[in-house]
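Dear support,

I submitted the protein below through the web form. The confirmation email said the job was done, but the results page showed an empty box. After a refresh the structure appeared. I'm attaching both so you can tell me whether what I see now is the final result or a partial one.
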Amino acid sequence: MDKKEGVGINIPIIYEDDSLAVVDKPSGLLTVPTPKNERHTLTSILGLYPCHRLDRDTSGLIIYAKTKLIQNKMMEEFRQRSVKKTYIAFVQGIPSRGQGVIRGRIEGLSAETGYKVIEKRSGFAIVEAMPTTGRTNQIRIHFKSIGHPILGESKYAFRRDFKIKAKRLCLHAAKLEFKHPENGKILRLGAGLPQDLRAFLEKNV
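What the results page shows now:
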């Protein structure tokens, strides 16, 4: 697998062609600068055009365009909700329903997240989350709203309230499915759990 290096960080490249690059973002790295104008971001390392964003603490797949035109085409796919996204999250407690849809407005806008419990552990569950809208921090807000905040959450829940301690937000963008903006072919891409989340699961059986 190809990798891009930046300031001691390896960025795995999951897919690349003349139009796009899809990379596996490590946790702790911003996609783009905040108003604080951080110089060290995923976008500054890659030197490409981001088509969407992941939170600093979220790891996983993110699409970059190689031209502004391709970026605009991909962003339109996101606006049309034709990009299918699947995240893996470790949530506090065990949701009473094995699968369902969480709905709730975020900053006045409608938001919807489908989910499915894929494994139950002691005190937490591993879930697949499939957001159909793309509101900021949507998955984090929605799971907090049903009483099952994501482990390691520090923005929407108090980390000290968690029985199970996690060093970072346990949220990973694992799968993407979308239409290539140039040739129209369907791309289905995946990125396995990073080493830190795998180690967490080994420790917390």
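Response: this is the final, complete result; the empty box was a page-load delay. The domain at 84-161 is CATH 3.30.2350.10 (Pseudouridine synthase).
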